Amino acid sequence: MPDEKRVRVAIIGATAYTSRETIRWLLRHPQAEIVALCSRRDPQPRIDEIFPELAGRLEVRCEPIAPPALKARADVAMLCLPSGVAMEHAPALLAAGLRVIDFSADYRLKERADYRQWYNRTHTDPENLSHAVYGLPEFHRAKIRSASLVANPGCYPASAALGIIPLLKAGLIDPQDVIVDAASGISGAGRRPTPEHHFPERNETFEAYQVGNHRHMVEIERTLDPYVRRGKSSVVFTPHLVPMQRGIFSTIHLKPLQPVSLEHVMQVFADAYQDEPFIRIRPALPRTADVARTNFCDLSARVVKSRIVVLSVIDNMVKGASGQAIQNMNIMFGLEEKAGLA
Amino acid sequence: MPDEKRVRVAIIGATAYTSRETIRWLLRHPQAEIVALCSRRDPQPRIDEIFPELAGRLEVRCEPIAPPALKARADVAMLCLPSGVAMEHAPALLAAGLRVIDFSADYRLKERADYRQWYNRTHTDPENLSHAVYGLPEFHRAKIRSASLVANPGCYPASAALGIIPLLKAGLIDPQDVIVDAASGISGAGRRPTPEHHFPERNETFEAYQVGNHRHMVEIERTLDPYVRRGKSSVVFTPHLVPMQRGIFSTIHLKPLQPVSLEHVMQVFADAYQDEPFIRIRPALPRTADVARTNFCDLSARVVKSRIVVLSVIDNMVKGASGQAIQNMNIMFGLEEKAGLA
Amino acid sequence: MPDEKRVRVAIIGATAYTSRETIRWLLRHPQAEIVALCSRRDPQPRIDEIFPELAGRLEVRCEPIAPPALKARADVAMLCLPSGVAMEHAPALLAAGLRVIDFSADYRLKERADYRQWYNRTHTDPENLSHAVYGLPEFHRAKIRSASLVANPGCYPASAALGIIPLLKAGLIDPQDVIVDAASGISGAGRRPTPEHHFPERNETFEAYQVGNHRHMVEIERTLDPYVRRGKSSVVFTPHLVPMQRGIFSTIHLKPLQPVSLEHVMQVFADAYQDEPFIRIRPALPRTADVARTNFCDLSARVVKSRIVVLSVIDNMVKGASGQAIQNMNIMFGLEEKAGLA
Amino acid sequence: MPDEKRVRVAIIGATAYTSRETIRWLLRHPQAEIVALCSRRDPQPRIDEIFPELAGRLEVRCEPIAPPALKARADVAMLCLPSGVAMEHAPALLAAGLRVIDFSADYRLKERADYRQWYNRTHTDPENLSHAVYGLPEFHRAKIRSASLVANPGCYPASAALGIIPLLKAGLIDPQDVIVDAASGISGAGRRPTPEHHFPERNETFEAYQVGNHRHMVEIERTLDPYVRRGKSSVVFTPHLVPMQRGIFSTIHLKPLQPVSLEHVMQVFADAYQDEPFIRIRPALPRTADVARTNFCDLSARVVKSRIVVLSVIDNMVKGASGQAIQNMNIMFGLEEKAGLA
Prior knowledge:
- 4 copies of one chain form a homotetramer.
- Chain A is α/β, with parallel strands linked by helices.
- Chain A contains 13 helices and 13 strands.
- In chain A, strands 8-9-7-10-13-12-11 form a 7-stranded mixed beta sheet. A 6-stranded parallel beta sheet of chain A has the order 2-1-3-4-6-5, sandwiched between helices.
- In chain A, β11, α12 and β12 form a beta-alpha-beta unit.
- The mean pLDDT of chain A is 97.
- Chain A binds chain B through residues 179, 181, 183, 185, 201, 203-209, 211-212, 234, 236, 238, 240, 242-247, 249, 251, 253, 285-289, 292, 302-307, 309, 311, and chain B through 179, 181, 183, 185, 201, 203-209, 211-212, 234, 236, 238, 240, 242-247, 249, 251, 253, 285-289, 292, 302-307, 309, 311, 313.
């Protein structure tokens, strides 16, 4: 493909699971190439030592995060760093002229007070925060196109927002009475071993965690707020852990403002997402397996007594992280939105 | 233990998973013995052919279900038959003088109209239905003691009811706005292979099923109704499947009638269950692993915005089936309630 | 890619797991297209009803297996039918001018006596059997190129043969003392639900099956035999089941004819596979996860006392089935061998 | 049970998985009681903080390891400490008059040279090592009865030895050509989180580890050696990891000295174990699930070409650790051997 445009990608924080997933997708992307893997480690590892599956495919040694050195080689930096660390590195990358897609939460919450409250630290890069675009293409595509800094959405918020916003925009539901029970595979917890995610502690068990105090609760609310006619949204969010690798299943309970039929609900979804390449509206109940290793969000709904129950399913590592980031990259660089995501 | 009373148990429907679990527990019960395993199969299998783990422990051949022949040998029949089949066999067993603990749904719903609506058939044993006792010891212990027929609760209803009734009795919550999202291990689906529970289809996936039309929804409501001051309860119940063997996790969203503190909620639970041998009120969030292979129900709660979120966890095969049945048996026969359930 | 050659593929037996896997890969293959999905079902299903993950991607209705009708539309038929059924359909497909890649065992064993002994039936298509080529590209590439009928290797034999043949060719080991203990994920068992693969029976357990009488034992031997200098090979093959979706791990015990160093063993592998795109020789011990969803075979070895222990790992659905078939297709049609398999 | 003898048990190293398993069994043991839980932690935790499943059952705070203080309270110490640490504590416990059952490897290898070679340290308690008894009751029952110090066998060696010794004693097999491929659940790896056992790294994968250099290889050999007529045994041992909680499956390849029938092999096993309460000889192939949470070892065999293939299955946490220890305790204290192990 000699004449075609190729986006040159630097992955920053290359030893994270989200980096691995991004690498997997980019290795197949016909119009992108990985030009640098940067990490904070010393000494720098070869990436196939960290992820043996990359043997023979990408045997590159990681390098320090040096924005000036990346300037000439890369068009975009994918930041796979933890929240709090990302905002230490984004400013220099942006200053060096790279566009940045940040996987962390650092640029998702516009209100610094929210950030301080939920992340227990002061935001150190308010300037870039002010122009960062929340990377949910289904609702912010135009702004993403021209953004220099995209805040890639959290996995739970992506799944929840896609299942709620159309009904909220249609004025069908009470934004102050939203309940989201979500269940996630364990890859979402990252690569660092912890007692809670030690195999014998995580296998063959199911549990809720951070009930009422998970940081994604406020992110869901802030993502919904622009579509609330009066006041703000109020979401009760309860995440759970499922002993499996991937997938997020959100069971969303919404209060219709007046009686509504399932047909109407499904039509609202169908209309909202008719041109969307990655949203599938399905009559049947979805499974996380149906979207595993794809960038799809599968949506279905039921009306049960006085509630609309929306079922929204994504792969937390794809539409909830790396696939979403590549979709955003495709938009930012004028590529076909599905490029590399088939 | 020569002088002690020993309850003689016949298990009917001996090749079911609930039978296997009941056998496991009874083999260790110091005051009970298995005197017959009855099945509808022809030819009758040896039970260790069906469940190889029983080799060398219970190598008994199953026999037909013949109530008169059981009369002299057994005190109680544990009915591990499917709903619809149980009520074909219970009358003769009761007539033969055995006490009956029924694992099916046949005697759980007092209103025959409910049964017809949710189970799509006419109840054929209204006489015994009228005096059957719902076997939730924490709320019906006295009636269980003298019951000849106990309807062992469904797994989801047991988990949900234990997390809701105390708050309902205390008048703290709106009985018309109850949301139960529950997740179950796969043993609850029974032993018959189906496409949905074929290992490659069930492993590494999470999904909701029978959203808004699961039969346990009405059972939960009917279990709550006696504690509703005016009218009836209304429950939105959504079950999910987790790729693991055992356990039910219920995330219950309740609407306080007025603002309430977590301390108050926990105190209500503590008071309600202070003498209960199998209910553990826990400040920390429970996991299904904490109750696996025990008869415990672990309860915790959080107050999130305008909701009480109750987390109620049981082993679906124990407190949700066989352990519950043995607890009921112990009560019925005057044994120590924890006998055989340590 | 308007000018490029595109191979037109008909998948026969489209509702099998191997078909699903083949579809997944072909949807991404830049030089292949799926032109027909054929099944023996009546009525014919839409493929996304069978595999919901294909919603929005391949919403094609299956059609009957009608070779004349496929003639003008397809270049190659991928036969995902069971052994015994494949040879009923291959002759007509070949007669219609299609090239055929058969996933079943029907054309793998050249000796009809072997087939009769191990598959308990008479081979009904000896003519095509006589010219069928065993599709292990690493050792039969030239013949595959011109073959009209390729017998795609069994998953266990592919994994075992790749780990043994180089050492056999090098004259290092005793062909009469080969022990292969292999462990497989459950997708290998196919889509039909059975008691043994019911989730609660298969989860959280490990077992050997068909010890000494698995049909792949003879296939391994026949694949090794051409490299045996005198007589035939003798393999003791024991397959095991692992509670996971994918992957085959073969632990192969070989008897060196004279003392040998690990370095020498590794060098033999390195030499044998130096130009192979899908074989990775690795110093570290491989995991099935390292090759999951790839067409790689990862090989390592250790010398332990008087044995060479070879560890050979593939994804049973990819290098053990669909990926192998596509690699064969690429060779047959003159495409780049890795096309669509990145 | 007021008049009955009760063995008083102190568990040393109480926060280990083997301690948890021992506690589970002892809580049900009719003639044993847990009198102390000792740990090296500071501050000492309450055991139900470490293992929430113990809430309401054993809410005891751990205490330092102080042998003199245990003297009056305990009859036996179960040492659940790591190898190397156990021999630091055993001497004082023995000196205080307690009998000791050690779960570590410290007293399993009689030759200090073996210990130094395989455990990379000098044995510091040769005196007690000299009289320690290897706790495999099926072959050392008499010595266990009077032992003050029992070395509880390793999980892999227990499984392997039980499947080999009878055939070795019968003179049927070549002791220099033994191959053991074993697969274990992950609980065997202990409670400390590591990168290799982080859930996303361990789930959905299968692998061999420590091929040819696992410490249990020499333990298997030393356990077989007494039954070798001339020279010593030679075992090629390859352990594997299965993504499940519990269970060890050993596939053992033995070389008959002369042709042998399966019937003869099975008869040798039947004779050897006819009075053993925990060995089940089974014609059908065993599964780890059949012995999960039991103290059974299930054995089967096949004759394949010129090999005997023995399949030996235990629960690594029970017959491979805690159940074995309790069986040893029962023998040491004159209790019924199956007491508490039903």
